[in-house]
Amino acid sequence: MKNILFIFLISLFSVTYAQNIKKGYKNLEKKEYERAKETFQKIIVEENGNVSANFGMALILADDQSSLFNIIDSWQYVEKVQNNTDKLSQEDIDIISEYFLNTEVRKTSRPVKKKIDIALDAIEARLIKYIREENNLEAVYEVLKRYPNFKHYNNVIHIRNQFEFRKYEKQNTLEGYQEFILKFPEAAQVQKAYNYIFKLAYDMVKAQNNVEAYNNYIKTYPKSEYIQTAIKQRNAAAFSDTKKINTLQAYEQYLDYYPDALEIAEAKIRVQDLLYEQAKRIKSLEAYNDFIKRYPEGRYFIDIFNLKADELGNHFIEENNLTANYSIDWAKGFDDNGKIESGGAITITSQGEYILACNSRATDSSYSDVWVLKLDAHGKMLWNKLIGQQFEDSLSFLMLDSIGEIIVVGYTYLSADSASKMGWMFKLGADGKKIWNRNLGKIDIGACSIDKNDRIYIGGSTKNDSTGSNYMLSVFNQDAQKIAERIFTGRGKINSLRVNSDGNILVSGSNWFCLLDSKRYLIWDDTLKKSLQSTGCEATTDGYYFTGKGKESIFYSKYNLSGKKQWFQEYDKTDTYLIPIDIVAINPSGVAIAEQKSLGAKIKLFNPDGNIRKVMDFNGNFQICRLGDQGNNLIVVISNRDLIIVRFLNIPS
Predict the structure, then answer these.
(1) Cα–Cα distance between 230 and 233 in angstroms, integer?
(2) CA 350, CA 107: separation in Å to the nearest integer?
(3) How far apart are CA 312 and CA 428, in angstroms?
(4) How far apart are the first and last CA of the chain?
(5) 274-299: per-residue pLDDT in tens?
(6) To pair with 501 at 20 to 30 A between CA atoms, which of 76, 86, 177, 354?
(7) Which domains does the chain have, with CATH numbers?
(8) Phi-psi label, residue 590: left if phi above 0, alpha if psi -120 to 50, beta otherwise
């Protein structure tokens, strides 16, 4: 009896349940949402996991035409339906099938369970769209809190981050963006937040516009897109501060701190300006040297170089007491930035400018190069050039051609081996630009001269056999190509040459004087006794002068234009080291001869009749290298580890 009653009750419950489910879906079909909800909720209260009732509730709350529409609440019922449609009874399926049949706009033959899945997908899409488009941050947080297993949970997080970021964008404050990054470090908007921070912070420091503010920005925001702009602005602000201070130390500090600044060029110019003013104010070699060392190509280089030249020249004059007995127009001393100068040669242009050259080496043991300078008529340097090849290079002679181009003759070494020594010649334009550079091969250079057709004559010697060397004269064209050569029968070396305006060549050799015609044939000659050696010659309008030395004596002589000896003077040396160095014609007539002593030098001025009309005696640790004639004035080139040039006034008087 009890079993019959239980079966009856079960049957009654099933009939009641089916009736209620059907009632709920009929109400839903009629859009009687409140009644449908009440029906489905009663079933869910009794059976929380009832798939049919939960599906009905999901449909009610997901229908935006329903006054009960709540897409977020709908999803709690969807989750109970998903993956549980197998629990639907056949009666449930029939009821739901009838619901779909009566409500579908387009009838389909899909299975009921498939239709349920499609409906759930539609609710899911509507939920995502709602969250994305409603701009309701509270709703977003509700979904994240209630549905952690939502398939699109990460997408909802992304939507949350977007909505949060919009909120902070409206605030648009440095603190707000920093808070966003701290709260949502994984948000896609983090970089955008940083960009806003970079911009806001940059606008703040730009308004302050001082070095400290820019430095803090650069340090705090190294990845900012404004970092380079901030650096430029920082550098500009620092330079503005430096200009207000306007001291050498301030500019040098700026150059040290901001080596890549756009203002570096201007800072260097201002340093040069201040150094230049300081050097002019101090008037010391140390100040001049410091400037030249720092700015060898600076715009004040020539000015400072000439100030230093004045200082070196005056120092030389005072040290050797030259003003006591002689009238000096000016004296200049030239130093190649602390290098050691030796030797020296001079030639004077048709405009009264001076071309100087000497050897220059960094130390006593380093290789030398040839240093060429051009001076104006007052001895101010116009330009200077250091010319050399890889190994030792040295100057022997300096000449000008017919158009004022500069020819330098000397020696160069092709290697560190002394056997690689070669003759060397190069040409510079009047502006100092190199025109050509030639190695002349194995040649002995004792003398040089140039004719009016720019043919270059090199006198020396050539080794014939073991018994000695013969006099040799080589001729080169204006491009340093050898065009002729003559070897003479006499033994010795040509030590001095002069080419006259008529093309005749005056030769001074070891024991031999001669005059050659333009084709190098002998016009006349004379010989010296073997104890003497000729070292120099000069041609004047009234005759030819020669000078030389012996072991214990020195001599001077003059020949007329026909080659007849007019006078010969030989003097015993009072100084063992006395050597005639150079001879030059002076106006109105006669010659000046420079003699080197063991300590100092002499310059003797001879009248045409052989009388010495003046002796200039200098004592000091220096050497006279060359003489130059300028009417009544005499140019003397001196070497004392610097190159010194002195212009004496009214020498013949």
Answers:
(1) 5
(2) 116
(3) 27
(4) 168
(5) 888 877 777 777 777 777 777 776 67
(6) 354
(7) 12-133 (1.25.40), 190-294 (no CATH)
(8) left
Q: What is the DSSP string of 239-290?
A: HHHHHHH--HHHHHHHHHH-TT-TTHHHHHHHHHHHHHHHHHHH--HHHHHH
User: Can you list the residues of the chain whose pLDDT is less than 50?
Assistant: 2, 4-13
- Pair 585, 540: CB distance under 8 Å: yes
Closest CA to 205 of 244, 179, 233, 181: 233
Token pair 């602000």: residue:
237
* 448: its two tokens: 């040089």
Q: At what angle do helices 264-282 and 301-319 cross, to 10 degrees?
A: 20
536, containing H or E segment: strand 532-540
Residue 304 Cα to chain centre, angstroms: 24
pTM of the prediction?
0.65
Q: What is the gyration radius of the CA atoms in the chain, in angstroms? A: 54
Structural contact between residues 558 and 611, judged by C-beta atoms closer than 8 angstroms = no
Q: Could you tell me the two tokens for 119? A: 């409906």
Tell me whether residue 253 is exposed, middle or buried, using C-beta atoms within 10 angstroms of its C-beta: 0 to 12, 13 to 18, 19 or more: middle
Note the pLDDT of residue 298.
66
DSSP collapsed to 3 states, 310-334: HHHHHHHHHHCCHHHCCCEEEEEEE
Closest Cα partner for 592 from 541, 642, 639, 630? 630
| Dist. CA 306–CA 528, nearest whole Å | 46
State the amino acid at position 346 in one-letter form. Answer: I
